[in-house]
Prior knowledge:
Structural class: mainly beta
Domain PilZ: 116-209
CATH topology of the largest domain: Pnp Oxidase, Chain A
Domain Type III secretion system flagellar brake protein YcgR PilZN: 19-108
Keywords: Bacterial flagellum, c-di-GMP, Cell projection, Cilium, Flagellum, Nucleotide-binding
Low-confidence stretches: none
Strand order of the largest sheet: 1-2-3-6-5-4
Oligomer: single chain
InterPro entries: PilZ_domain, Split_barrel_FMN-bd, T3SS_YcgR_PilZN
Largest sheet: 6 strands, antiparallel, barrel
Number of helices: 3
CATH architecture of the largest domain: Roll
CATH class of the largest domain: Mainly Beta
GO molecular function: cyclic-di-GMP binding
Shape: elongated
Number of domains: 2
Helix content: 10-25%
Amino acid sequence: MMKNPxxxxxxxxxxxxxxGMELFIEIHFANGKTVQSRSSMIGYQLERxxxxxxxxxxxxxxxxxxxxxxxxxxxxxxxxxxxxxIAFKSTILSVVNHPIKMLCLxxxxxxxxxxxxxxxxxxxxxxxxxxxxESKVSATMVDFSFSGCLLTLDANAVSIEQGEQMHVAISINxxxxxxxxxxxxxxxxxxxxxxxxxxxSDEHPELTDNIFSYCLVNSTKKS
Length: 223
């Protein structure tokens, strides 16, 4: 039985990361280069090490040799009803090649938890295209949630009425690209800009979930 209160707290926090859960990782190499990728939890032995799947984003051979002792930031979104975020900083101890390729990490001193229920909408600054009637215009997505988003665009670029259907083409990366469909629920003119609040339809739940997770995880870097 663990008597150290720090160990008990750390153990309870680690239990929030289910085996196989997707992890968002950020590796900081000694030469200043930072690489973001995804991984998944394999397991851990408290006070000794954590094992995660080798990142799915390929590294050049030179960087593979630089993984040992590199700093790594690990973030995950829990399976709780509120999709809480947990994050920790660690060090890559070694690369394990058998039975599968894994990263062996040091156990962090602490894990940070953030309640998403306190932040149902996340800030984002992402270039998108608005497709409305026969027009396709550039816009900026400034916040995002499961149910909708807020866009800003040139007030003279397009005419939008409340309740009209709109399509938003977004491409964050090769894995997060697609078209979100919704309707304009709030329209404001501010300093020559059109601010349009969009409520999403239920056509693309997986895409909205993945984008929200991406935005949420990246928002913790600014906290």
